[in-house]
Design goal:
Layout: E1 9-11, E2 19-21, E3 25-27, H1 30-34, E4 42-44, E5 56-64, E6 71-74, H2 79-88, E7 92-96, E8 107-111, E9 117-119, E10 125-131, H3 147-196, H4 204-210, E11 219-222, E12 229-231
Parallel strand pairs: 1-9
Antiparallel strand pairs: 1-2, 3-4, 5-9, 5-10, 6-8, 7-8, 7-10, 11-12
């Protein structure tokens, strides 16, 4: 299993395929990688900018540290001093604590590609890998970014996206329902309005019969102009 995933790859025996690239790294040759040929290894998705001193170090927790063939260590340096030394050397690609006992001490530096990294479930250590400053997450503190935190943020983002989609669907259904209710109310109002102002029309014989041939006994009043007279009448249904 040694060097199974080659440069900057990470081996996880609980996954299939077992080889993957470190977070923020991509296969050097995607076609070969898809065919389970990992000999090309992985490369950073964004190039380093060592000369202007803007590179950062991102924390990758819970792993077996890379092969130390091309490494250097100092037993007295702090982790912060370790970072500064690595940052000043363009060939330095990662650093970690030399000794993790009693809170950790010392400094271990890697130069060149990182070989034989494995994911461990419980006994893993932390390593800080050099990346371009454009990879810096806005929530990162001192350039340290926990890879597990990235996964959590992605999951939270998916949940929020799903929630937003659901709310949009519910709001859409409510608006459609309100629109239908408004249309039905408006139609009902128009029908009532038309019925309210629709006056019945009677022919002359019906009016004459209802007023007893315009009898003076049915007279209610008379106008001042033209002698118009108003009489009451009793209409009888033609079906009686």
């Amino acid at each position: 299993m040694y060097r199974a995933c080659c440069a900057n790859g990470i081996c996880n025996i609980y996954n299939f395929p077992i080889c993957g690239c470190l977070d923020k790294f991509l296969p050097r040759n995607q076609e070969e990688w898809n065919m389970a040929d990992y000999s090309g290894g992985c490369v950073r998705r964004r190039g380093l900018h060592c000369n202007n001193g803007t590179d950062i170090f991102v924390k990758y927790p819970g792993i077996k540290l890379p092969d130390t063939k091309y490494s250097w260590y100092d037993e007295t340096m702090t982790l912060q001093e370790c970072e500064q030394v690595c940052l000043k050397n363009c060939t330095c690609t990662a650093y970690s604590r030399l000794d993790i006992r009693n809170g950790g001490s010392g400094c271990l530096l890697w130069f060149g590609d990182l070989i034989d990294i494995r994911k461990l479930s419980d006994r893993g250590q932390d390593i800080y890998i050099r990346l371009a400053s454009s990879e810096l997450d806005k929530n990162t503190t001192h350039g340290f970014l926990n890879v597990s935190d990235v996964g959590s943020k992605r999951k939270r983002g998916k949940k929020l996206e799903l929630l937003a989609t659901s709310l949009s669907s519910v709001i859409g259904l409510i608006l459609v329902g309100l629109s239908l209710m408004f249309c039905l109310w408006r139609k009902k109002t128009e029908v009532l309005h038309d019925n309210e102002f629709e006056l019945p029309i009677f022919d002359f014989p019906t009016i004459a019969r209802a007023t007893n041939n315009f009898s003076a006994n049915n007279k209610l009043g008379q106008g001042d102009f033209g002698g118009n007279q108003i009489r009451f009448g009793l209409l009888v249904s033609k079906f009686i």
